[in-house]
Amino acid sequence: MASPAVDLHLHSTASDGRLGPAALVRHAAACGVRHLALTDHDTVAGVAAASDAARECGLGFVPGVELSAAWRGRAIHILGLAVDPQAPALGAAVERLASLREERADRIADRLDAAGAPGQAARRAIEAEGALPTRTHFARALVELGAARDLAEAFDRFLRQGRPGYVPTAWPEAEDVTGWIIAAGGVAVIAHPLRYTLSAGARRELGHAFRAAGGMGIEIATGGASAAQVAEATSLAVRTGLDGSVGSDFHDPAFAWNQPGRLAKLPASIRPVWNHPAFPRDFGATA
Q1: What is the pTM of this model?
Q2: Which range marks the domain in which residue 232 is found?
Q3: Residue 76, domain member (yes or no)
Q4: Rounded to an integer, what distance in angstroms lies between the CA atom of residue 265 and that of residue 171?
């Protein structure tokens, strides 16, 4: 089954992407994607517009979300795929996470100001956009305000762990987040597992714990991943009994490294997560 035409990790302006939901879908279609999910951070606000655009473009679409979670005190991200955006469990989850993000944004702004950076000015610029605030929003605002040359410098100087604008957040436990996704009729998938600062053994423990909590999949082919990283993620899926997913983690058309439609194929040894009954029967079928 050819997975480059599938992309289950995309971001719009509903969170920290650069394209509106409908424009994002059209961009993905132009890049060769035929089946996709919108997975904005801790919100499903863009799902309706993306779904309408996918229908107009003749694409397969499932509602999605990328929820913030914690495992052993470390922040991780869990994708909810083929969720019901109207499910009460999901509504309560995104409301709780939105509150945590707003509180964190206020603290980031204060810490940046204390460090001599334009924190409150950045916060006002983010509020004007109307999206749920992320660290990427702060990075962009710091660049626009002249406090950093680019996003990389904004993170390196101000926003990464150990920098003055970094604020630890008590995200909900991964087991609870997984349960919310399942309660919303969706499929829970660990996003970009190799980006977390975990040992190989700890990643396996995370995978086993995730599966025990009802999680179904793990991202294998992600934007910018090397062949060695795809092989490592494949081994992790095999060892933990998880299905495989593919997603570019697309945010911005200016960034060539994670454009839609450029993902490695899901290895034949891995069961695609889109074979789960929550997905439409023909989802992921080769065009």
Answers
A1: 0.93
A2: 6-93+175-275
A3: yes
A4: 32
| Side chain identity at residue 218, one-letter code | I
Instruction: Give me the amino acid identity at 149.
Output: R
Q: Does 215 map to a domain?
A: yes
Cα–Cα distance for residue pair 65/114, rounded to 1 Å: 34
Structure tokens at 278: 């929550």
Distance CA 182, CA 278 (A): 10
Per DSSP, what are the bridge partners of residue 66?
Answer: 41, 79
How high is the pLDDT of residue 287?
Answer: 42
User: What is the number of structural domains in the chain?
Assistant: 1
Non-local CB neighbours of 43 within 8 Å, separated by 6+ positions: 14, 15, 65, 94, 98, 132
Q: What is the per-residue pLDDT across 263-282, written as a single tens digit (0 to 9) for each?
A: 988 999 999 999 999 999 98
DSSP-based three-state secondary structure for 104: helix
What's the CATH number where 226 sits?
3.20.20.140
Within a domain: 182: yes
